[in-house]
């Protein structure tokens, strides 16, 4: 199955998610409406709703809660992006100006708060208690992840385990929650719930690793952002962390200097990229991301083979670029 | 009854709220713990928990949910203060440095997000669906209020109705929610629920008006902040809005110039204060706040006279300084 065919399986669901999002944002403040619609129409791939819908269908769910639960996840996801972009001072996301650069930090902070509240209202209206707890806990964990990431900024002693802890919280918990909720809606047994949680968790890790690789070595025309933002923001990510174990003492000093100085420029990026090239970091990092995607696929063994399972596999592989 | 005696009636409840808050904050990130404890131990008066507990007792509630519901309200209240202080660039609150000035804006944004999520987790764990909806809607409305306030900053054409709309959202909805929840916990009839909602709503308005009067004409040794922050931030509040209807054309131009120029200084504050003095704005504004407190007290007519009702009256009067 191709990833396109996989997406086709949940196309109706995702259309309903889009419609739900449009209808659900009710505010008497036109500017908030404008900002939220700008954010929600940013061309995001709705990956989390796709996996929620696929998980639900894999488990035989036939109910009508996929749009509402997907909307909650998109609200939380969007709120975190909004606040992250403020913290990072990001000017572009997905080839468009960020909300903070268009509307200012103040409005962006408040629209993020609006989205958190909006998510919980929809969650209360449509979600059972177990689902409410999964999603509010995921949002909490994500804010913790951002704090840990901030504290580890420029910290050259960051370990691979630290990195996993950060991307678990930043990315994997919400993918895991999306998949788990699909199973909870269908009320399958805990064995299958665990399988879905694990799938989402490892998928999220592999996905974030791929994102971190693309940040240095992706094609800006495809990713929509310039390379090296993680370096410019002083964030140590997969390719750098893995490389730190391989380089000479002198090279380690160079990396340390790069990440601990006050500001970094294009020349610094060139130095780092040439070192990454020397140590073959693209291939090594991609291999690491692949390991996690394989773990995510292994989690699916508990399910019988069918088109939904095939769709999971196709999309997971596409997310690490293995079927492009 | 004095306000001190009124507080004595719910002292046990508030002690339990304090204990609940200490036990409820669970995070594996020490810095978040530190920031949250700093915020929660700031010497806030726990006014909203006091009114929640009093409302519950007035309605004969004997259950154990007052601490959890109060904690949720304090989390939401604290999260909004945290984000407001960032937006206002505030350096002090209640005589202590703000979290944004101590820990930086980035950490303050994320700790606010943490608190919103924490509030929803506790709300899911302890709250029935009606209470969940009341509080998440209140949080949403508060973020809208902050946006409206931002948009009206420096807007000399702001009306009294605009002002009521802003302080309804910023302050009154959460007081109203606190009182309503007391009644919902006790499961009293809708007539009493409406009375409690109205009481909290008008109380919140009167309280915010008093706060806005004190901002210009309070004693900094008591309020813990220097006078005129609303002027420095370009916010038009009660004393100015009421005065705009009374002044001469020339004076109106002076006020316009003050609020529309780029920055304001102590000299500008002197000009404005002397005009307020000339037009007797302290007394006129206090009379307006009194009107709202009287409306809040009138809402209580549906309840029989007892010590809890007396406590409401004593505290409402204390909040506009009428029994000092």
The main sheet of chain A orders its strands as 1-2
- Which class best fits the helix and strand makeup of chain A? mainly alpha
How helical, in percent, are the residues of chain A?
Answer: over 70%
| Number of structural domains of chain A | 1
Q: How are the secondary structure elements laid out?
A:
2 copies of one chain form a homodimer.
Chain A: H1 3-9, H2 11-24, H3 30-40, H4 47-58, H5 66-88, E1 92-93, E2 96-97, H6 99-103, H7 105-126, H8 129-151, H9 160-186, H10 190-217, H11 220-223, H12 229-232, H13 238-244, H14 249-260, H15 266-278, H16 281-298, H17 307-319
Antiparallel strand pairs in A: 1-2
Helix pairs in contact in A: 1-17, 2-5, 4-5, 4-9, 4-17, 5-7, 5-8, 5-9, 8-9, 9-10, 10-16, 13-16
Tell me briefly what this model is:
Two copies of one chain form a homodimer. The first copy, chain A, has 324 residues and is mainly α. Chain A has 17 helices and two strands.
Structure characterization notes:
Two copies of one chain form a homodimer. The first copy, chain A, has a two-stranded antiparallel sheet with strand order 1-2. In chain A, strand 1 and strand 2 (96-97) form a beta hairpin. In chain A, helix 5 (66-88) runs parallel beside helix 8 and helix 8 (129-151) runs antiparallel to helix 9. The first copy, chain A, contains 17 helices and two strands. In chain A, 75% of the residues lie in helices and 1% in strands. Chain A has one domain: Farnesyl Diphosphate Synthase (Orthogonal Bundle). By secondary structure, the first copy, chain A, is mostly helical.
What labels describe this entry?
homodimer, 324 residues, mainly alpha, Farnesyl Diphosphate Synthase, two-stranded antiparallel sheet, 17 helices
């Amino acid at each position: 199955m191709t990833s396109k065919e996989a997406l086709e399986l949940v196309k109706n669901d995702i259309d309903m998610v889009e419609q739900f999002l449009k209808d659900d944002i009710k505010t008497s403040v036109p500017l908030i409406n404008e900002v939220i619609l700008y954010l929600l129409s940013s061309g995001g791939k709705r990956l989390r709703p796709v996996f929620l819908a696929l998980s639900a269908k894999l488990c035989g769910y036939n109910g009508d809660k996929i749009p509402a639960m997907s909307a909650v996840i998109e609200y939380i996801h969007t709120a975190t992006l909004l606040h992250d972009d403020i913290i990072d001072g990001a000017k572009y996301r997905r080839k468009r100006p960020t909300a903070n650069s268009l509307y200012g930090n103040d409005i962006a902070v408040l629209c993020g708060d609006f989205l958190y509240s909006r998510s919980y209202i929809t969650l209360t209206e449509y979600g059972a208690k177990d689902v409410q707890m999964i999603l509010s806990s995921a949002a909490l964990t994500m804010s913790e992840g951002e704090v840990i990431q901030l504290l580890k900024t420029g910290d050259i002693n960051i370990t691979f385990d630290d990195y996993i802890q950060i991307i678990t919280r930043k990315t994997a918990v919400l993918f895991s929650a999306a998949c788990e909720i699909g199973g909870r809606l269908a009320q399958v047994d805990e064995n299958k719930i665990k399988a879905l949680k694990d799938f989402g968790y490892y998928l999220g890790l592999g996905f974030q690793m791929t994102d971190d690789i693309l940040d240095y070595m992706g094609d800006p025309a495809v990713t929509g952002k310039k390379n090296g933002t993680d370096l410019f923001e002083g964030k140590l990510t997969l390719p750098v962390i893995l490389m730190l174990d391989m380089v000479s003492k002198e090279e380690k000093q160079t990396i340390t200097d790069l990440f601990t100085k006050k500001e970094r420029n294009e020349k610094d990026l060139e130095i780092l990229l040439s070192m990454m090239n020397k140590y073959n970091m693209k291939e090594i990092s991609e291999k690491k991301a692949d390991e996690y995607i394989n773990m995510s696929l292994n989690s699916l063994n508990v399910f019988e083979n069918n088109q939904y399972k095939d769709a999971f596999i196709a999309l997971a592989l596409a997310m690490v670029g293995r079927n492009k």
